[in-house]
């Protein structure tokens, strides 16, 4: 699964959805809908209600009132249908890009699939991606960064993160979401030979999940850092063969597998486009190719960058 952890979070939310989540000594975090949102029709009563609440809450959060003036945070649960797109769901539910992607921890608009359960909150806002502590001093720090009164923030004890009503994603995070941060690690010298997602395993022929994309290229093709970062691993690891792992900002990592040459050492800072290795077929590979993965908070994401999606 691309999103085992995310799925787990959704499942936990659903399990806890019987009434609400009460955090001892603090405000209620949110109320979860028992019954899933069945349709995206504008005439659906749940859609009408959630759109009204979003509008109302937006007015409150841009004014200087307090959290108690908001309609309390609650989530609808929507199961993605085969013809749904990120933007259709966003428009129909009165969401905006920042809210829908942040609440559901999506890495890109392509990062949804039929059957996936999306949470639709009744207010716009985003999760802070930097702080995890619920301490009052942290509340103030997050509020200051988002230029909002600390009284507005909700602490989500399950996710260990602050929900900031009425605010959007920081620019850097938005750039990741639009695929503007990562570049093609082979500088268009490769050809996509296997996409991200479900596929037949080339060895066992069984249906498996492919957590990255494969870019076929001849042996020795230069491999470049896909974004600025720091080398966190350079060595041999199981099926990946010779592997380089780079750490980027905001919990993002990239992996470069099956290399024939490793040209950087752990701890080295690298720039986007810097040469880090060469294409090979070490590890579990049937031909010369780069196995490229993008991870966020250890979850594998659909790699999105210019050239290959
Ligand atoms: Zn692969």
Automatic annotation (TrEMBL):
SMART domains registered for this protein in UniProt: LysM
Top-level taxon of the source organism: Bacteria
Annotated LysM domain residues: 76-120
SUPFAM superfamilies with a match to the protein in the record: Duplicated hybrid motif
MF (Gene Ontology): metalloendopeptidase activity
TM annotation in the entry: 12-32
InterPro entries given in the database record: Cell_wall_metabolism_enzyme (IPR050570), Dup_hybrid_motif (IPR011055), LysM (IPR018392), LysM_dom_sf (IPR036779), M23ase_b-sheet_dom (IPR016047)
Keywords linked to the UniProt accession: Membrane, Transmembrane, Transmembrane helix
PROSITE patterns linked: LYSM
PANTHER family associated with the record: PEPTIDASE M23 DOMAIN PROTEIN (PTHR21666:SF290), PEPTIDASE-RELATED (PTHR21666)
The protein's name: M23 family metallopeptidase
Provenance organism: Leptospira sarikeiensis
